[in-house]
Amino acid sequence: MIDINAPEFIVLVVLAVIIFGPEKLPELARKGARVLNYVRNIANDAQGKLRQELGTDLGDLNFSDLNPRSLVTSTLLDPVKSEVDQVRATVSGTMAEAKAELVTEAEPAASVPFDPEAT
Questions:
Q1: In terms of domains, do 41 and 84 share one?
Q2: Residue 76 — very low, low, confident or very high, per pLDDT cuts 50/70/90?
Q3: Is 48 in the same domain as 84?
Q4: Is the predicted pLDDT of residue 40 greater than 90, yes or no?
Q5: Residue 37 belongs to a domain
Q6: Which of 35, 61, 87 finishes a domain?
Q7: For 84-106, what is each residue's pLDDT tens digit?
Q8: I need a surface site. Which of 39, 40, 91, 115 has the fewest CB within 10 A?
Q9: Quick one: which of 30, 36, 27 has its CA closest to 1?
Q10: How would you label 58-69 residue by residue, b for 16+ Cβ within 10 Å and e otherwise?
């Protein structure tokens, strides 16, 4: 959907306060919420009518499956997903063994020479 992080949202709020003023901002927010709700209701009604028109044959149609990005992803990745999971399990097991070996303390190679006059 809309990808707005916190700094961008703060900038938008500050711009709205500057452009519309603090007096009109609550009224505009209410109007914006009403418009958003109206558009959402129209979309839900259209979706319901489409399901009704399609009948029982396609009544279980999931509209998110029609998203081109998810369609391509599922078409390309579903056949190899089990193989990828097997490889991931093997790699994570091997990494766990390697980490266990690295955790053991290494013995010092040689003692450090000590010079009592070097201070």
A1: no
A2: confident
A3: no
A4: yes
A5: yes
A6: 61
A7: 888 999 999 898 888 887 776 66
A8: 115
A9: 36
A10: eeeeeeeeeeee
Domain that holds residue 49: 1-61
Residue 35 confidence (pLDDT) above 70: yes
Say how far residue 46 (Cα) sits from the centre of its chain: 28
Q: Looking at the structure, tell me whether residues 37 and 73 fall in a common domain.
A: no
Q: Quick one: which H or E segment has residue 63?
A: none
Q: What is the mean pLDDT of the chain?
A: 83
The verdict on 39 and 3 lying in the same domain is yes
**Encoded tokens for 31:** 């109007």
Please check whether residues 57 and 85 belong to one and the same domain. Answer: no
Structure tokens at 61: 């149609």
Question: 7: alpha, beta or left, given left = phi > 0 and alpha = psi -120 to 50?
Answer: alpha
The pLDDT assigned to 17 comes to 87
